[in-house]
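Section 3.1 - Work completed
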Amino acid sequence: MAIIEHTGYYENPINGVSHMHTSCELIYLVSGRLEVINGDEPFCLSDGDSLLIKSRKHHTIRMKSGIDYKRFVAFINPWELEKQLVRPDLFAMLTDISRSGYIILRNAPQLYGGFEKMKDIFENGGNIYAELSAALNVISAFYEEVRPQAKNAANSAKRLSDTVRFYIESNYADNIKISSLAKENFISEGYLAHAFKSETGMSPREYLSHIRCTRAYELICHTNMKFADISCNTGFCCANDMSKKIREYYGRTPTQIRFENNR
């Protein structure tokens, strides 16, 4: 399944009925006035505003008449996003409607490029990593708007965890040493493990293994690359090491996975 399930640029009017989506809907209003009705009080979007509608949240969208209207719309699959990242914080933001099913960013022109990138990937194709990067570029802005601001220590742990997580996601194919990451951040390896696990539910080593396994799995399923090349491109020391980890993670060998996917 894809992370970006649909995205496009539209200039046609909207006068809808109340509905909901399993995926999350993201809107960037290039120009015009948009009214969103959530069953309680309506709210409006103006030029440059962006809206995230969470999974399974009923809503009605109406366009203000007589105004030039342009918008980007994207639908993101939060379950596929969670599978690729193991981020319970982001997943909760996209699916938890116990408080509010909406997040609004006012005057956020910096998101325009992110929506353009998602549209290009959806229309012209892109692998799961490109989708992940493009979706996170937009979703992270909403997350920063609503994430709880706790005590300084908690904020420090969050920043540390985000830094290490981003480094792992960007450099998983390299020979990453957790001890070196701790040293570079002037902390002990034990504190790094504790802070990272408190934010992600996994240790840095577990997260690195997860990222390598999921990236290798995608290449096994969707390319004809040799297993030795896949192992080299995803940070495993050799094809046998990759095969062992993949079997532990998915319960099947790379050969079995590729055969099942190609049937």
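Second construct:
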Amino acid sequence: MKSGKPGADIWTRTIDRRQLLKTLGLAGSILALGGPHGLAEAMAPSPPPTAGDIPRRALGKTGVDVSILCFGGAHWGRMEDDAEAIRVLHEAIDAGITFLDNAWEYNGGRSEELMGRALQGRRHQVVLMTKVCSHGRDKKVALQQLDDSLRRLKTDYLDLWQIHEVVYDDDPDRHFIPGGAAEALLDAKRQGKVRFIGFTGHKDPKIHLKMLAHDFPFDTCQMPLNVFDGTYRSFEHDVLPVLNQRGIAPLGMKSLSGNAEPIKQGIVTPEEAIRYVLSLPIASLVSGIDSRQVLKQNLDIVRRFTPMTAADREALRTRVARYALDGRFELFKSTNRYDGRIGREQHGLS
């Protein structure tokens, strides 16, 4: 299938043609799917998982299932050896990771370019997400970045396109002005260039709630979730319930606090940290993977994953509470040192 559209292995399990057209949001979706043959493949049921597989969950109300572990593109794009990076991604896909993360600005575009090379012949196996990094600039900039991303990723469509790093107080207003990034999301979806749309951020639950107050048809929302977040500026408490109530797929990130410092200090183990987040009502956890060792570690954790009980999660939060109160392991919430360079520049920060 020349278009590379996703087939029976990852798309929708039971969705009729009318619902598919509604989900894609465009009357010409048959053409966007590569003709009737592509549509038939898309509607075929997915095979059931077998023992040892990576579990999958529904991506909100999209009709798509994704692996509970999402392969992060930022750390991966910093690997020095291109061939080794591609081998790591191939091993992840072969192991059952079906959800891939990226962003237009990751490593100056290298992450997208490398992933595009790695996905040749494998595009149909994955749900591919990248992000627009307009940081308050207009729709024209956003749509140009989309074209850049499609070219780099060597594909004619994205499964998910998200507004990246909604982290400053005025970001929601910037994105929702007439001719802003929110309009770009809708235009891209109507054109068949993207299937689903969302936004991300790591700074303050109030900013996420301000985005959600626009009652925009977001399919996904990405946010930091970890054992410390439950005690400090908590996305788990303030945002996660809103998303689940509205059927917007929650995507977790920064389960190891972004730099794994609490792991290095022996405060929590990788399994405790990842298992805690996966025990929350989320669709998938974006995880930074930059080596075979990290990939193996994370695969081992998710393959034997069993949810923590509410009591177990509370006990873990209590155990780490003294480290969470001052936000020392979540500095991405209280400083701009973890904000991307382009975003800082667009807000007049060095």
